[in-house]
């Protein structure tokens, strides 16, 4: 596999609205709104566990709030390159499917992530996340093969949808000498703001050079956030785990 892009993420503590303004994004109309659900094992959730997440598998539904396309993503995170076998050893696109592999960097460390995204027409996915529905129904054959080949211990059956998470995203926001994406999540009494940048390999660049360049970008992103009077979260758990834990507990108590 060639050099991989690096996505660098910083979570910002404190009031989300004030933080957005401090980071230069005060126009809510410019943000794309979506509702997000995650699928998890129904029996596991009832027992206070997140079996898919614990197995390194994420099943995510994103439903566009403006009438745009929906998408269903099956992701392995964290994973190892040795897991990514067969056709999943390298990125590809095929019709509505797009498969990619990248490094995810955050305060909790650096991990490898592999994602298989299936775009769906607007309005195609809400039925799959209703309380009585089977969230596994729209998982297509290739996504099922992906999990079977690369995470065979995880089963995509007996699932329940957890959500919704209300999300708003602004792309390509200038932040000093950086251009960042800003995304908010709100669910189960939790509010998050994430600032992220993507560092792509350059032609002729080797692995050490890419890592050094990404490290400089990571330092600059943290500095840019702090320079605006904001606090970078030092929480070791990802926002996905924190939100899913809260949503699963709410589902367990209501069930």
UniProtKB/TrEMBL annotation:
Residues 207-237 are annotated as: Disordered. This is CYTH domain-containing protein. It comes from Streptomyces lucensis JCM 4490. The lineage of its organism: Bacteria, Bacillati, Actinomycetota, Actinomycetes, Kitasatosporales.
């Amino acid at each position: 596999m060639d050099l991989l892009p690096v996505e660098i993420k910083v979570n910002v503590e404190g009031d989300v609205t004030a933080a957005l303004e401090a980071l230069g994004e005060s126009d809510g109309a410019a943000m794309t709104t979506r509702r997000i659900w995650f699928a998890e094992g129904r029996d596991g959730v009832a027992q206070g566990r997140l079996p898919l997440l614990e197995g390194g598998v994420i099943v995510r539904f994103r439903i566009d709030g403006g009438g745009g396309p929906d998408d269903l993503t099956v992701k392995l995170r964290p994973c190892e390159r040795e897991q990514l076998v067969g056709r999943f050893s390298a990125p590809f696109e095929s019709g509505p499917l797009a498969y990619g592999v990248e490094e995810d960097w955050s305060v909790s460390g650096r991990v490898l992530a592999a994602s298989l995204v299936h775009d769906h027409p607007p309005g195609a996915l809400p039925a799959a996340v209703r309380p009585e529905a089977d969230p596994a129904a729209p998982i297509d054959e290739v996504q099922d093969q992906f999990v079977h080949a690369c995470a065979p211990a995880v089963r995509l059956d007996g699932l329940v949808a957890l959500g919704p998470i209300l999300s708003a995203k602004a792309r390509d926001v200038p932040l000093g000498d950086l251009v960042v994406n800003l995304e908010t999540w709100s669910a189960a009494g939790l509010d998050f703001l994430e600032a992220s940048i993507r560092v792509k390999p350059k032609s002729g660049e080797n692995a050490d050079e890419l890592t050094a360049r990404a490290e400089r970008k990571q330092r600059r992103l943290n500095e840019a956030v702090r320079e605006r009077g904001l606090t970078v979260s030092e929480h070791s758990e990802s926002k996905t785990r924190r939100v899913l834990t809260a949503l699963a507990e709410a589902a367990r108590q209501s069930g």
